[in-house]
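Notebook B, p. 112. Complex prediction, attempt 2.
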Amino acid sequence: MRYRKSQGAPPPITRRVFVGAAMTVGGSLVLGVNLQAQEGGESRATPAATTPRLPSAFVQIGEDDSITIITPAVEMGQGGHTAMPMLVMEELGGDWDRVRVADAAAAAVYNNPLFGMQATVGSFSVRGWYRELRRIGAVAREMLVQAAAEDWSVPIRECTAGNSRIVHGPTGRSRSFGSVAARAATLPIPQEPPLKPRSDFRVIGTSPPRGDIPAKVNGSACFGIDVKLPGMLYAAVKSSPTLGGTLASFNDAAAKPMPGYHCTAALHDGVIVVARSYWQAKKALDQVSTVYDQGALAGWDSAKVSLTLRQGFNEIGKIARHDGDVAAALAAAATVMEAQYEAPYLAHACMEPMNCTARVDAAGCEVWCGTQSPQAARAAAATALGIPRERVKVNTTYLGGGFGRRGQADYVAQAVIAARAAGRPVKLIWSREEDIQHDYYRPAAAIRFRAGLSAKGELTALDCSVVTAASSAFERPNLPPTYTGGVSDTNYSIPNLRVCGVNKDIGVRFGFWRSVNDSHNPFMLEGFIDEIAARTKKDPYQFRRLLLQHAAAQRQLAVLDLIADKAHWEQRRPGHFLGIAAFESFGSYIGSVADITVKDNKVSLHRVIVAIDCGVAIHPDNIKAQLEGGMVYGLSAVLRGEITLDNGAVRQSNFHDYPMLLMSEMPVVECFVVPSAAPPGGVGEPGTGPIGPALANAVYAATGRRLRSLPLSKHNLTVSAVRVS
Amino acid sequence: MFNLTINGMQHDVEVEPDTPLLWVLRDAIGLTGTKFGCGIGLCGACSVLLDGQIARSCTMAVNAVANQPIITIEGLSPDGSHPVQRAWVQESVPQCGYCQSGMILAAAALLKRVPQPSDADIDGAMTNICRCGTYARVRKAIYRAAALQADSLKRIADAAGELS
């Protein structure tokens, strides 16, 4: 697939001429219907069943035979710009080499069919668009075929589409897509064209080269930080050291004489300086003195956070799940086990620090940035400027990492405030220190488990109290909590099972962090399940098998069996110890085995097995890339990832004190993708979670030490990778 | 005013003497392939080749680097054909891609110094941070690049042999 995403600052087209612009670029336009009709009401869900999406919003074919796929998923490394076009192209029958990819504008038509928002989050892109983008590809194909058939005056059924041509079978005549595009655009839009059976797939299940890669090896790929506008200035920003603090006063007298200084803009929680270059802005900002009202988090440190979470164990909170009667079963148990697990705050630390370029004038505002949610970016800019959303245009660039952080748009609001103050276009860039200290953190979390065992050592009851900060955006008074995921949705068969969720939101702002609940909850549950196996003198793998014998658990069981087999669970090498973990995650089933040796508190990680059943595999090579990457993200956090508070301020500031895993520390990872005909599951998120419990369980197997809190660096252990070349 | 030689071209830039080379490249000259990651020389996203050696441009003041030839990712090859770039495409290394300019230059510097590197050589030279987790593919791509480079050198040697 050739990939020609527009580079640099995209032309300042408005949404009004969006369709027209494509027409002038690519000749005539197939399916040229009005995108504007679907742009209103962005926050409402638009179920496909009631509001069919107009195909021109997703696929445009020019007279020059170009195929432009407008992708509702942004590209942040997860492969959205490849998977989305693959779904359309499977049905369209177009030539891969003609595909161009463009990011979608902020518009309701791009709301993910699964959750009704335009956001690239939660491993939802393929899951949400799997059917709809194939349907749109099929709609376009049907219209092209009909146009050619009418032109030839032959029956539609005698014509087929492939390689960007329509072929008339009986005569062998053929025409290119582009040559009938204009005629096709005038035809009525079929709503439910037939879709191929899976056995006929030609695109899905292959691994075409990712179109974004060539630009990423020669420096030409345009990330948000690379956007340049005529007359643009640069801005640096610093916010209140104490989280939640507000700006009381500032003095920028010493900044004004600095080279290149342009202006200062006050935020409610910080200060921005605009200058001719970023370095000048940063140096001038250093000269601004500030006084902050510290706010409610002053006096908070990590010990107090931990204590507060653990106090939550004494509250019932909300019941996420209750099977059987846990209280009665625990009272009747011969043995009751109890353990408490805990995980810290984490920062996302995307390689590209937060940034946004903005232009504000009387007509409105235009922003350029890497964002996982163009609608959130638009809303943030509109709110900051006090203008209607319709007057904000969002241009999405490549994202230098997202991981959930770029679903937030705080940096967009700052950029438009800076641009308004400067009266010129401004590129606002965060320092790494600002990025680490003002994230939307993975919330700290703790779980207390109680298990009841019968006299024969059977697991009869499990009581789980999950305490963390709960997002008000997702919690509803009458619905079960969402943050117990990874525990309350366990597939383990336990006759009496209760999961309670207790919300302890102390005011540290938090958000989604790659794999969300599954970055910590399965670490805790899989650890405690391992404890139960040890107490009842059962093999950890065989014990899990026993709990997965029911019909609904067969895919998880298969993943468990696969990783045990690949890790040689039954024939491990002398001196080696294995830890295992498997669970359901984002509609997929994931599992991992860690293979270690230990000497004097020094853990050597020899290899890691990871396997996923993610249903129909769209792009198998990219699935492996996501598993490899998730493993690095997860292992980095598990080994030493920790954001701590001191008087309400984040102690860590950059990669020296929030260190990342390096190449030399990365073990050999063997990835397996289970062949599956099930509907697609998630891929980007699930790979993060399993290494934590697999590694901790291996350490227990080797040493008898049960590691119940993260990161593992707190346990006087060093972990290093062993590579056999 | 500083005179810099970047990718074989002369550039005169008017910046304060303490301006890091990174920001001179990005803001003054417009070579944005060199990335800002941490500002303290820890992540390697800003790596360039300075007189043939890998160097982190975010902590290098412009007045300390004038007179030394600088190669950025844009200048590694005219058409993306450097063995490391070809290997990176063939192994589908980049995910988000943000750290990859630095990774590629670090790999190119390694292969120039050690044409057939071992895992230990790679571990020692490749200290760039990648949050997407492309490490396994970076390693594979370095081995592939080493083979591509050896193949190119062999062909050049064979051609030279035929000529003589």
